[in-house]
Design goal:
Layout lengths: L21 E4 L21 H12 L15 H17 L5 H13 L2 E2 L4 E2 L4 E2 L6 E2 L4 E2 L4 E2 L4 E3 L15 E2 L4 E2 L4 E3 L3 E2 L4 E2 L4 E2 L8 E4 L6 E2 L2 E2 L5 H4 L8 H5 L5
Parallel strand pairs: 2-5, 3-6, 4-7, 5-8, 6-9, 7-10, 8-11, 9-12, 10-13, 11-14, 13-15
Antiparallel strand pairs: 1-15, 16-17
């Protein structure tokens, strides 16, 4: 599946207006990470096998004798259950796709609507509290951490049967607790940082962050508030190569 470019948002000409607490860095400031973990995974074989391969590739905890633990990962089981439920959904089988998704939610803590469209090699790490709505479209090689919500605006704003959930491009990473709400597009090869709220399109190859936590008092003495520019940079969202400009072309 190929990513869908935002219809009215360019990384080089326009930075989208996100919510007041989020900050988007365009492509010029953040080249994609190049590492062994981003090398292509052989696409031969069923998508269910991809879940095992990508989990082993992306989780540093899976090494040596611990590699077998990949079959215990709730993100892997959630994706397996989704693949079955989605196949039944496409055949217009009533009730059972939702039954499978609800059982998977009970067992894994991950809720994926069977109507969502998810590409290959999607990896959900840890997974607790992840919610993926019915009309969500997710590209290939996407990674989600725990607490991610791909949802709508609410019952008062979303019409039944309408596209009301996000479209996530290829190679996107969604950080812990972030929320992408509404029929917005997150461009390919982008990263959305922890606890960011995205309600507008994000250009391809961008990084979205919110301000870091900071002390307002020490020993009950109130501190002077730092300037926004001192809080917004999020170096933990970039690689060492990106910071030094040594990213291979």
């Amino acid at each position: 599946m190929r990513a869908v470019e935002p219809p009215s948002c360019s990384a080089t000409k326009h930075t989208p207006q996100l919510d007041a607490g989020s900050h988007c860095r365009p492509a010029e400031l953040s080249e994609p990470i190049r590492s062994g973990r981003n090398e292509p995974i052989d696409e031969r074989g069923p998508p269910m096998l991809d879940s095992l391969k990508v989990a082993y590739r992306k989780d540093p905890a899976l090494h040596g004798v611990h590699a077998l633990e990949v079959i215990l990962y709730q993100g892997v089981w959630a994706m397996w259950c989704y693949r079955v439920a989605h196949a039944l959904w496409k055949l217009h089988v009533p009730f059972f796709p939702r039954l499978i998704s609800q059982c998977a939610r009970l067992l894994t803590g991950i809720e994926i609507h069977p109507g969502a469209v998810i590409g290959r090699r999607c990896f959900i790490d840890h997974g607790a509290g992840v919610v993926i709505g019915e009309t969500t479209v997710i590209g290939d090689d996407v990674m989600l951490y725990q607490g991610v919500t791909l949802g709508g605006h609410g019952w008062w704003a979303d019409a039944k049967g309408a596209k009301r959930h996000p479209t996530i491009g290829d190679k996107v990473t969604l950080g812990v607790g972030c929320s992408v709400l509404g029929p917005v597009v997150v461009g390919e090869d982008s990263r959305v940082g922890p606890h960011a709220l995205v309600v507008d399109d994000v250009p391809a190859r961008s990084i979205v962050v919110v301000e870091r936590g900071h002390c307002v008092t020490i020993s009950r003495a109130r501190l002077e508030q730092p300037a926004d520019e001192e809080r917004l940079p999020a170096t933990w969202m970039t690689s060492a190569e990106e910071e030094t400009g040594d990213v291979p072309a």
